[in-house]
Specification:
Low-confidence stretches: 10-16, 18-22
Structural class: alpha+beta
CATH class: Mainly Beta
Order of helices and strands: HHEEEEEEEE
Oligomer: single chain
């Protein structure tokens, strides 16, 4: 069996102590958008689509969201209801779309950060921009 140097054991024990004492938020993975419906960049989306959704890589704080307008990138859709979580990590935004329009929906953009992971409720999820175009 190899012999450890005198410094190896204290260094190893220090590392274990730091990892055990670190808050869970410091070790948590970042909160990210992993899917949207429609997909970002999609074209010829049916104007009959009744809702858009965003799915994150982890469970979210329920009842808290930031769908943000950015008129420089596209039109924000007319709302057809209130946002709601359909699962712990997916939020649905009811919309009424028009044909031939480019839409832009920011997720935690432009200074808004209410999408937050349940594991780290004080830290906003990363910003994301969903842009799509409806067909005619």
């Amino acid at each position: 069996m190899p012999r450890l140097s005198r410094l190896a054991v204290p260094l190893f024990l220090s590392l274990v102590a730091v990892l055990c004492l670190a808050p869970a938020s410091a070790l948590a993975k970042p909160c990210l958008v992993v899917a949207t419906v429609p997909a970002a960049g999609a074209a010829k989306i049916s104007p009959g689509l009744k809702a858009v959704s965003v799915t994150f890589n982890q469970a979210m704080v329920p009842g808290s969201w930031s769908f943000v307008k950015n008129p420089k990138l596209g039109r924000f859709p007319k709302l057809a209801g209130q946002p709601k979580f359909t699962s712990p990590n997916t939020c649905l935004l009811p919309v009424a779309l028009e044909p031939g329009v480019t839409y832009a929906i920011g997720i935690n953009t432009e200074g808004y950060g209410n999408f937050r992971a349940a594991a780290t409720p004080k830290t906003p999820c990363a910003s994301y921009q969903m842009i799509f175009t409806t067909g005619r």
